[in-house]
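User: Please predict structures.

Assistant: First:
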Amino acid sequence: MRAAVNHPDHGFCRDCLTPQQSGVRRCAHCGSPRLVRHPELYKLHLAHIDCDAFYAAVEKRDNPSLKDKPVIIGGGKRGVVSTACYIARINGVRSAMPMFKALEACPEAVVIKPNMEKYARVGREVRAMMQALTPLVEPISIDEAFLDLAGTERLHGMPPALVLARFSQALEKEVGITASVGLSYCKFLAKVASDFRKPRGFSIIGEAEATGFLAEQPVTLIWGVGRAFASVLERDGIRLIGQLQKMDQAELMRRYGSMGSRLYHLSRGQDERVVSADRDSKSVSAETTFDMDHSQLDDLVPVLRALSEKVSARLKKASLAGRTVVLKLKSSDFRIRTRNRQLGDPTRLADRIFTTGLELLRKEIDGTRYRLLGIGVADLCDSGKADPPDLVDTLSHKRALAEGAMDALRDKFGRSAVETGYTFGKGHRGKPARPGEEDEPEVRHPWERI
């Protein structure tokens, strides 16, 4: 079906895709109230798609008895919320909230430990559906991505807005989850639009309305303006984006440095970033939260080893290596420490990740009690450049061969088939106590919010 030309009187029904004229509140064909109209509806082609409460949605899909119940995906009482379904959110549960607070807000919630393998599998299904729409798909996380559908109208026989609506239908029917779509002329506003009217949203921000729309929004809508920087702006009397629009670029840069330039451009809806399908991962990491705080090296070393092996496995599977090892610790008062060390050559070996992380960890054993430990590798590159022979450490080659043999046995018989002395007999994945929150490795990207 070919839609009408760009005209404010024309739109379509999101449920049956039938064209609609102005003045009607329900679809003349199917009676649905989910109609889409906008003056630039058939002109815009840059979209952000964000699956709704992804982890929780997958669990509800696989267990229909959870459909009308509040569901929280996360760890034990000392973990944090990974995802909360919208029923739980109505009760005050939010992502990254400590689990004990989430259960105080919603004591009747069903708590499910994350199954990252399953979520990654569903995420690949969703990604494949996106890539069928356009080759320009830029993943942001496992469940969201930017898409540029410019030039695809002849391929699909319909403009991008209709293609996206059809994608949403297919996602619900074929995968069993929902997503919200933001359509605009730039990445910044496409991401902003996708956050409107969740779940199952379809929102549009056109170029003509951008400045006026932004003027009424709080400064925290701008990427990079978190709680701390918002406080700085508020001390200067700036709360709304409209106030930034009245300031010139030189003044903003004088006050806020390079961030001032971003404030100037984004406050005016100016974002020149393009959708890039080749955007690389920034790091690969794994972390875990304990059920009890720990301050002793003997308790933390087995966990560090287990997490190093998980990071190594993910690197090997993706044919990646990294030059910088990053240690992350969170103390009992929720203060985060990150320490890093750059290696002479990139690595993907658990042994090198662990030994480097252990050197960093030893320096942090000062009596502080830690509730979280993580290890990661950054500055990623192709694994072909990883772990060359070490002329100084002559045993490194033998350790690498031994690790390769362990990998082969684990691939054949499972991860628990072979353990090192660091983790043997130490409990689940090296933890000194029963497992807390999910500790699967995760790939982090440079643009996590926008």
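Second:
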Amino acid sequence: MRATRAVGILGLVALLASCAPAQTDNDASGADKMTGTLRVWLFSEVDQEPKEDVVNQAVDEFEAQHDDVTVDVQYIPVDTRAERFHAAFNDPSSAPDVAEYGNTDLAGYVESGGFADISGELADWDQYDGIAEDVADTARVGDGTYGVPWFLGTRALYYRTDVLEELDREPPETLEEVVDTGRAIREENPDMLGMSAGGDYTYGFLPFIWAHGGDIAVENGDGYTSAIDSAEARDGIRQYSEVLSPDVCPPQTCAQMDGNASVQNFIAGEAGMTIGGNFNLNAVDDSDISDDYSVVPLPGTEPGSIAPPFAGGNNLGVLSGTERRTLSVEFTKLLAGKKYQREMYEAMGNLPTLTGVQEEIAESDGRMEPFIASLDSGSRFVPATSAWATIDSGAVLPSMMQRIASGDASVDESASEAANELDDAFAEG
């Protein structure tokens, strides 16, 4: 599941938090069979054949290495994943042994008892050391590790090279310069958005908050406490609100826009800049502006710094009810390992999680360098709690930004209100 898709449908996982009872008895009863059928769930894709080809290679290799083992792969729709996993957690006999899942869904799945902690098995896997700590954290809840990060989606700053050349400007080196450049673009080209970035673009504006030293929330014992109204977070919110202004991206156009719409404006030639993902590269290359754009890391508050990006992506995990734990972990390691991460990149454009593979890709495909540089600078993630599903489906953070953009509330007022809503969600779990 690419990161853009994960953002739009996160709310579905609220079914797990609100409907699924806490699972306490769905662990396998000590069984660890080394033969039979290993069931695997992966997400279906719009263009699925290249993914299937790579997975089939991994299946053939695994079956050749394991006598009397058959790997049965099913591709499930992303938009029904909440219901499918909900049923699987409550009926292990119908559940897969291994599954692909969106990393922002994990906390709810762990709360439902659905995935196994495989920390022990990963401790002696040398390839796991090639995953940066901030990326590895996307598969962790509390002290447990519930899978292997399989691929990532991260964002950087797309800009029109021809437009900046006409203005005799270099790419922005700070967030302040991002805003100033957006103003200059729109002043010179009134029919163009200086920067296309919407109020409903959570993973577009969070880097502004993180770059200023702010955060969504901080850990407090076993839970979280909101930090969105801290002085640092408000500085980031205030700077992003300058983007959602008539002289950069008018609120009547931009306040309700999400990430997809933000990028589509750029692809259509209607914006001078946008915050887009590595997963948007092919679409831009297929557009009329393919020869007139470039990408740099979204800068931070100081020249030479990079705003921390959100580390969206998908992981591979082992279901807690499996009767084939050893085989499940071995297949997870194979499919999430170096060989098939590279193969999946070649087939689907998925950004690998292993730093060694990232370095190889950066050398062979210069388009990926800004995204890898952004990850190398240190990525960030949402609070690892099932409450995130409630927060996301309730649009707490976009509503905060939209109220500011529309003039319904000041930065201080809207941030304080959002902080209260976050704390309510954290308290309810």
